[in-house]
Design goal:
The chain is of the alpha+beta class. It has ten helices and 20 strands. The strands form five sheets. Strands 2, 4, 5, 8, 9 and 10 form a six-stranded mixed sheet that branches. Strands 13, 14, 16, 17 and 18 form a five-stranded antiparallel sheet that branches. Strand 8 and strand 9 form a beta hairpin. It is 34% helix and 25% strand.
Length: 467
């Protein structure tokens, strides 16, 4: 049997007594009705998982307390909320050391922010989600947010320089879990994807599966720029849901991530501009003519809509009779969804008496009208011609290979697309790993952002270069 001398026992008592006193103060103390300083949970961390950092704010009520708060130390204990009919799971765990994060003061008040780690030893909740919804008996537990997040008590004990408690306060917070946050994130992504897919089906967007439909163009090609913006949108959206499910606060998006979103958005807009410019008849701008004496003589006639395709309508008309001093230099074509009368230009003016209007929506009825123009102005509009695009399948079936090939050369790998896709996947993977391990969107290095900008710039430039 090991023997202890009285001197050893004395020193052991002296050394351990402060820790025992702190433990007693943390677990057995009663919060004051009118504390000299207020303790509140930081609004940015109303929920935290086990192992997460919970922040709380201590604010002094007067100048005397402000002086004490400057040198004060803090300890914390944790337990579940609710009645306390048995030792577990409602007995306090702790004391746990607290980290001072910041301190600020004025002549009459002061504020200190502390951080403490939620203990991994906090007992598991005995009921599951199904039981919480259908069984009103929670036992020793209380819940928030539709009975999905259990509530715990944080007891804060503020000690002065001599180890005497000056503030004892209890605050409640939600204890989340990685599993629940992941489940919520996956559910949110699935719901968002289903809603987008339902919209795409209603608008007859081409594509053989839900993912392809989200990034397909009207012509039936998988768009690399749309893939990029959709990837970033889903990644940041899922990250926001994930972090909110863990901490109850919105995620902070740093400037580097905003730059990446801007680069992806610019690529998408440029691709749409290129598509819109390619959607009308490529007619040369008519040469400048001497100013005529009067407007064209009457409207054009015989406007007909024909030669429909999945996304286009061919138009033909008859020129007005030619009279001296009123030549027709060009024709302006306008279209609108039938019944709306929201007319918009179908493209640059044409010289001939026919035009093809592309990039329309299948299954939609359109109205068309044509004006004869010269440098003096425009004639009256033609009578309206209508056409409804057929519901037929697009000429091209969207496929993943469209990400690295172009419509004009489907059997050739486009290196500008490969470069843009490669760096997009690398940066998205980096952001995803950091986001789901540190709960924050990381700052993207400036060199990598420059590389992404160059890659997207080369891709955009290549789209405007004729083969």
């Amino acid at each position: 049997m090991t023997r202890f001398s009285p001197l050893a026992l004395f020193f052991a008592f002296v050394l351990l007594e402060p820790g025992l006193a702190v433990a007693d103060q943390c677990k057995d103390a009663t919060p004051e009705a009118k504390p000299v300083a207020t303790v509140t949970i930081d609004p940015s961390t109303p929920w935290q998982p086990r192992g997460g950092e919970l922040r709380f704010i201590v604010t002094s009520a007067d100048a005397a307390t402000a002086t004490l708060l400057k040198d004060a130390k803090a300890v914390a204990c944790f337990r579940w909320t609710g009645p306390d009919p048995q030792p577990n799971p409602n007995e306090f765990i702790g004391p746990i050391g607290v980290t001072s994060l910041s301190y600020s003061s004025t002549s009459t008040s002061s504020k200190a922010v502390f951080g403490v780690t939620v203990p991994e030893t906090l007992p598991e909740v005995s009921s599951n989600l199904w039981q919480r919804f259908w069984d009103p008996k929670d036992g020793p537990f209380q819940f928030i947010l539709l009975r999905t997040i259990p509530k715990a008590v944080l007891r804060v004990v503020l000690l002065d320089a001599n180890g005497k408690s000056i503030v004892v306060a209890d605050q409640t917070f939600g204890v989340t879990s990685l599993l629940a946050a992941c489940f919520l994130t996956i559910l949110a992504v699935i719901v968002a994807a289903l809603l987008l897919d339902l919209w795409a089906r209603a608008r007859h967007v081409p594509g053989g599966n839900p993912v392809v439909r989200l990034i397909s163009t009207r012509d039936g090609y998988v768009s690399l720029s749309q893939f990029q913006i959709m990837l970033w949108s889903f990644l940041f959206g899922a990250g926001a849901v994930y972090v909110m499910g863990l901490s109850g606060s919105l995620i902070d998006i740093p400037s580097g991530a905003l730059v990446l979103l801007g680069i992806a958005g610019a690529s998408t807009v440029a691709a749409k501009i290129k598509t819109a410019n390619a959607g009308t008849t490529d007619s040369a701008t008519p040469p400048a003519q001497p100013r005529p004496a009067s407007l064209p003589s009457g409207p054009v006639s015989g406007l007909m809509a024909s030669a429909q395709s999945a996304h286009g309508v061919g138009l033909e008309w008859t020129a007005p009779a030619t009279v001296p001093n009123a030549p027709v230099d060009r024709y302006r074509v306008e279209y609108s969804v039938a019944g709306l009368k929201a007319w918009q230009s179908a493209g640059p003016p044409v010289i001939g008496t026919s035009m093809r209007v592309e990039h329309l929506i299948r299954g939609t009825q359109y109205d068309f009208q044509v004006f004869a123009e010269n440098s003096a102005g425009a004639s009256a509009a033609t009578s309206v011609a209508s056409a409804t695009l057929a519901q037929g399948a697009p000429a091209h079936v969207p496929s993943w290979s469209d990400l690295v090939t172009t419509p004009t050369h489907p059997s050739e790998i486009d290196v500008t697309r490969v470069q843009m896709l490669f760096f997009t996947l690398i940066s998205a993977g980096f952001v995803a790993i950091k986001l789901f391990t540190s709960y924050t969107i990381p700052d993207i290095p400036q060199g990598f952002m420059l590389l992404m900008g160059i890659s997207n710039g080369v891709y955009i430039s290549a789209k405007f270069v004729r083969d």
